UniProtKB/TrEMBL annotation:
Primary location recorded for the protein, binned into one broad class: cytoplasm
Known pathway: Cofactor biosynthesis; coenzyme A biosynthesis; CoA from (R)-pantothenate: step 4/5
Catalytic activity: (R)-4'-phosphopantetheine + ATP + H(+) = 3'-dephospho-CoA + diphosphate
Molecular function terms, GO-annotated: ATP binding; pantetheine-phosphate adenylyltransferase activity
GO cellular component, one term: cytoplasm
Keywords: ATP-binding, Coenzyme A biosynthesis, Cytoplasm, Magnesium, Nucleotide-binding, Nucleotidyltransferase, Transferase
Name this protein carries in UniProt: Phosphopantetheine adenylyltransferase
Residue intervals of the Cytidyltransferase-like domain: 4-133
List of residues binding ATP: 8-9, 16, 89-91, 99, 123-129
Length: 172
């Protein structure tokens, strides 16, 4: 059976990778799909091509994982790709309440099932938005994201990283 792991992945985190790696052991094929959200247009740190490149780098070691993108309803993508299972990662109960509503809606309008995979406890506090915030100040996020994300964040915020490193040298 094939599954889709949708999200904005701006950038992909270690929590996402934990869920994705575990899903890749359950399903024959998993497609990580960057969904375009018109309401978030212009609010992403990384553009679509950058996010796809980061995802390809982060998932290269997973032989049954592919990367794609789609704009529109997820259920339309699922029908187009002939996939029937949506993978969603959960960090906390608050995630579950929101994701449950969406799962019910997707089942109602698209007859697709959602499988929830709990992120490992060590990643339950990590979110893409928090990672972006820390990285924007030159903070070390290398434990919270795969190497491809860490390198992309460093390139995006190279001035902040340089300033932080210079400040640390001055204090010594």
């Amino acid at each position: 059976m094939n599954a889709v792991f949708p999200g904005s992945f701006d950038p992909i985190t270690s929590g996402h990778m934990d869920v994705l790696t575990r899903a890749s052991r359950i399903f024959e094929q998993v497609t990580v799909t960057v969904m375009h959200n018109a309401r978030k247009q212009g609010r992403h740190l990384f553009d679509l091509d950058e996010r796809l490149d980061i995802l390809r780098g982060a998932t290269a070691h997973l032989g049954n994982v592919s990367v794609d993108s789609f704009g529109g309803l997820l259920v339309d993508y699922m029908a187009q790709q002939q996939k029937g299972i949506i993978i969603r990662g959960l960090r906390a109960v608050s995630d579950y309440e929101y994701e449950l509503q969406i799962a019910h809606l997707n089942r109602q309008i698209g007859e697709v099932e959602t499988v929830f995979i709990m992120a490992a406890t060590r990643w339950s506090f990590v979110s893409s938005s928090m990672v972006r915030e820390i990285a924007s100040y030159g903070g070390d996020v290398s434990e919270m994201v795969p190497r491809a994300s860490a390198e992309a964040l460093r390139r995006k915020f190279d001035v902040a990283y340089a300033e932080r490193a210079a400040g640390q040298l001055e204090r010594r």
